[in-house]
Amino acid sequence: MTDAVIFPGQGSQSAGMQAELAASYDDVRACYAEASAVLGYDLWQLVQQGPAERLDATVVTQPAMLTAGVAAWRAFRTAGGRVPVMVAGHSLGEYTALVCAGALDFADAVGLVRSRGTLMQAAVAEGSGAMAAIIGLDDDQVIDACQRAGQGEVVSAVNFNSPGQVVIAGTRTAVERAVALASAAGARRAMMLNVSVPSHCALMRPATGKLAEALQAVDIRTPQLEVISNVDVRPYTDAASIRDGLARQLYSPVRWVETVRYLVAHGADRLIECGPGKVLSGLVRRIDKSVTLKFIESPESLVDAL
Question: Known catalytic residues?
Fold first, then answer.
């Protein structure tokens, strides 16, 4: 079998995550300790004890999910997990993939995603942006609903997660109109999401310049593994392409369906999800049923992946 490793983004976090994994693998707590030194607070304690409202704030969620993904990866590799042919991450998970591919130092990445979360939070006034999941329509129907709902405001399809599952984002009123139109078009479900920022839409453009500055300030190297870009669905080639892709990713859609299909088309027949939860595994099942799926969120699942 040929492996690719995938890393989840925001939405997979939960209070108490990775407690069992940390009890069996020292890499996990060590990873959180490294992140805590950068952040200036005890990330492990926050992840374990909450409160959930703080963990779900994007400025905290982003370094927490980055750390969780790297911790799972390190535990997997220490236990003898083989090097994959490719890696990819969903949204924030792309930073995790770049760390694990040797393009970014972990400490630099922690600081970057904290800045990314802060910039995203500051780009839109609290309560004025929103995201919603549309289930049961094809992509073109969702795009059409967004176009009709805009009425001079921002709303667009931002996460193409699996066939029949698309997430939209924009100003709250426009997203609410798009949800109503999607429901009228026959969506099985069209529901607002409990998120603090409307990611990957044009409302994030004001944050791009400062994120680009932050990306210029850290050392970025050519990846040692192929890392597939969310924005362009092709491998990053060098530091310049990584800086450009991560900056554009802030306001560009996550093309997850195409990313998974790229991994499979280029030889991966087993995908391993590194990080808490099994959100990406569920999406992959709906994209390509032929792929073998493993995930790493507990000692038992890690042994199974080995």
Answer: 91, 200
Q: Who wins on pLDDT, 11 or 160?
A: 160
Contact 109, 95 (CB under 8 A): yes
Written as six digits, the tokens of 119 are 């910039």
| Helix (DSSP H) and strand (DSSP E) numbers for the chain | 14, 9
pLDDT tens-digit series, residues 107-132: 999 999 999 999 999 999 888 999 99
30 pLDDT more than 90? yes
Give exposure, 256-294, as e/b (b: 16+ Cβ within 10 Å): bbbbbebbbeeebeebbbbbbbbbbbebbeebbeebebb
Other beta carbons within 10 Å of 119: 21
Distance CA(226)–CA(221), nearest Å, equals 12
Q: Global pTM?
A: 0.95
Q: Residue 97 carries which side chain, given as an amino acid letter?
A: A
Residue 56 scores a pLDDT above 90: no
Structure token digits, residue 147: 């176009």
What are the structure tokens assigned to 193, written together?
Answer: 């999401």
Q: What's the CA gap between 221 and 224, in Å, rounded?
A: 9
Q: From start to end of the chain, where are the E strands?
A: 3-7, 86-89, 129-135, 155-162, 165-171, 189-192, 226-227, 270-274, 292-296
The partner residues of 135 in beta bridges, in order of sequence, read 165, 189
CB-CB contact of 266 with 253 (8 Å): no
Q: What angle do CA 138, 139, 144 make, to 5 degrees?
A: 105
Residue partners of 140: CB distance under 8 A and separation at least 6? none
Tell me, what's the pLDDT at 52?
A: 86
Alpha helices in 40-194 (DSSP H): 43-49, 52-55, 58-78, 93-100, 106-123, 139-150, 172-184
> Which phi and psi angles does 38 have, rounded to 5°?
-75, -40
